């Protein structure tokens, strides 16, 4: 297990993450026959890899990015979306590791809705945090965190490191 001075208490073990992935996959498998999965990179890469291998419906894949500082509710950075697949009239599932403040995900949902005319937009994440902004689309998630601790691992960075931890831990600054 990778240890460093910033890894605190483990909040989600690799086993808990695997269970969460199964829960979200099960929910999506009930609701979709086909969809375009758009990964929010880089944070959503690990969850997307684990989740998509458990989906029983046809998917196309693309990616989008909007760099931000964890916990920043006012992310105004540039959205980069390559639009490799025509998503007009199709069901879109935006996948990320977590919804923390929700500001970035809300911007991404609005950007896709306003510019690409999908049939629907949903969001799939491993977990959500309390106090997040309202995002007006269906959200699939496995867990709701009890507090707003800064977390690292499983896609979530600190100082552009620790995304590759196979678990989610509290950040020790």
Features:
173 residues, alpha/beta, 7-stranded mixed sheet, 3-stranded antiparallel sheet, 3 helices, 10 strands, 30% strand
Ordered list of secondary-structure elements with their pairings:
Layout: E1 7-12, H1 14-31, E2 34-40, H2 45-52, E3 58-65, E4 80-81, E5 91-95, E6 98-99, H3 103-116, E7 120-128, E8 138-144, E9 151-152, E10 168-171
Parallel strand pairs: 2-3, 2-5, 5-7, 6-7, 7-8
Antiparallel strand pairs: 1-10, 3-4, 9-10
Helix pairs in contact: 1-2
Q: Percent of residues in beta strands? A: 25-35%
Shape by Cα distribution:
globular
Strand-pairing-aware structural class: alpha/beta
Please provide the ordered H/E string of secondary-structure elements.
Answer: EHEHEEEEHEEEE
Q: Give the helix tally.
A: 3
Mean pLDDT: 93
Number of DSSP-assigned strands: 10
Low-confidence stretches: none
Distance between the termini: 19 Å
Radius of gyration: 15 Å
Helix coverage percent = 10-25%
Summary, kept brief:
By secondary structure, this protein is of the alpha/beta class. The chain is 23% helix and 30% strand. The two termini are 19 Å apart.
Report on this structure.
By secondary structure, the chain is an alpha/beta fold. Helix content is 23%, strand content 30%. The chain is built from 3 helices and 10 strands; from the N terminus they run βαβαββββαββββ. The protein has helices at 14-31, 45-52, 103-116; strands spanning 7-12, 34-40, 58-65, 80-81, 91-95, 98-99, 120-128, 138-144, 151-152, 168-171. The strands form 2 sheets. Strands 2, 3, 4, 5, 6, 7 and 8 form a 7-stranded mixed β-sheet that branches. Strands 1-10-9 form a 3-stranded antiparallel β-sheet. The longest helix has 18 residues, at 14-31. It starts with 6 loop residues before the first strand and ends with a strand. 36% of the residues are buried.
């Amino acid at each position: 297990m990778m240890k460093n001075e910033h890894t605190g208490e483990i909040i989600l073990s690799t086993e808990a993450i695997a269970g969460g992935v199964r829960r979200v996959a099960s929910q999506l498998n009930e609701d979709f026959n086909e969809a375009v999965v758009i990964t929010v990179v880089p944070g959503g890469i690990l969850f997307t890899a684990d989740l998509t291998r458990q989906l029983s419906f046809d998917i196309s894949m693309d990616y989008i990015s909007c760099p931000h500082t964890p916990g920043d509710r006012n992310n105004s950075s540039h959205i980069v979306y390559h639009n490799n697949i025509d998503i007009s009239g199709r069901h879109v599932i935006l996948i990320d590791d977590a919804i923390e403040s929700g500001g970035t995900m809300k911007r991404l949902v609005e950007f896709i809705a306003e510019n690409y005319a999908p049939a629907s937009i949903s969001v799939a994440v491993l977990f959500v945090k309390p106090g997040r902004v309202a995002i007006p689309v269906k959200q699939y998630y496995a867990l709701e965190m009890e507090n707003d601790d800064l977390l690292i691992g499983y896609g979530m960075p600190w100082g552009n490191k620790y995304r590759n931890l196979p678990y989610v831990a509290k950040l020790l600054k």
